[in-house]
Structure formats: structure tokens, C-alpha cells
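Quick one:
INPUT:
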């Protein structure tokens, strides 16, 4: 039996984390890793104690908001945001950590990840947010598209 690479291992866990999401449009998972240790996890969903979208419906669907636009018109937080929040709640230093995410971060999450000191982003699926890509290109953050058996580094 062949052991998975570290990237495969962490991406598999990230996909499992995404299964906790109650978002009706897209299930996203994120984990923050440093020195091959998982520091925090997050998935997209509403704040604690708030009715989930699978119960009350999707505001973005009702308003016909396209993916990648008007992020403020959503009851939920993104997986990356929840991972950062969980680390903060538990006093975990994420400076220099790697983010594994099932989806490329949006511009809002990108700005948070930059200021949180994330050094590397590894994502599985793309996301239509050119500004996020432009801003990441200005940073020293390594961005890699994970393809099973291959890791493509994006400039």
C-alpha cells in the first residue's frame, strides 16, 4: 500500500471537512497546517446558533446573485474565514501556515489570509475572482493548484 503525499493527505482531510457544510450552493472545506500539524479547520456555513440555509433557504439563490459576486448577501461565512476564526478562538498562531482549501479563496478571504500571515495556499478547484488572483500575485504567498498526483504552482 502506497502512502499518500502530505498534500494528498491534507487535501483529503479538507474534503472531509467540507462535508459539514450546510450551504445549498457549494460545500467548501479549509484547514490550516504548520509543520505537518493541523492547526484549525473550517467549512462554509452560518455563524453558531443561527438557522442553517438548508432550513431557511438561500438568500443568494432568492436574489439570483451570481457566484463570486456580492459576498455580503449571504448568511454564511466562508471556510477560510471559519478556519481563521477557530484558530483565533483557541489562541493558535497561524503565521506562516499553509491553507488547504477545496476552492480557491475569494477576494475577501484572500485579504484575510494575507494579513493573517499565511505563507502557502493549496486549492483543489478554481473560483471566478480575478482580483483575488491579482492581489495574491503581489504577495510572497505561494499558490498551488492541487491535482491528484501533481501540484501545479501558480505564479
Amino acid at each position: 500500500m502506497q502512502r499518500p503525499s502530505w498534500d494528498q493527505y491534507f487535501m483529503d482531510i479538507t474534503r472531509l471537512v467540507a462535508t459539514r457544510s450546510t450551504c445549498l450552493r457549494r460545500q467548501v472545506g479549509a484547514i490550516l497546517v504548520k509543520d505537518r500539524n493541523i492547526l484549525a479547520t473550517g467549512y462554509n456555513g452560518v455563524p453558531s446558533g443561527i438557522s442553517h440555509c438548508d432550513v431557511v433557504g438561500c438568500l443568494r439563490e432568492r436574489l439570483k446573485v451570481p457566484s463570486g459576486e456580492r459576498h455580503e448577501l449571504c448568511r454564511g461565512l466562508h471556510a477560510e474565514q471559519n478556519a481563521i476564526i477557530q484558530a483565533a478562538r483557541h489562541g493558535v498562531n497561524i503565521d506562516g501556515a499553509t491553507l488547504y482549501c477545496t476552492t480557491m479563496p475569494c477576494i475577501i478571504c484572500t485579504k484575510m489570509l494575507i494579513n493573517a500571515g499565511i505563507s502557502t495556499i493549496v486549492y483543489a478547484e478554481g473560483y471566478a475572482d480575478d482580483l483575488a488572483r491579482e492581489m495574491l500575485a503581489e504577495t510572497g504567498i505561494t499558490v498551488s493548484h492541487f491535482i491528484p498526483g501533481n501540484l501545479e504552482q501558480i505564479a
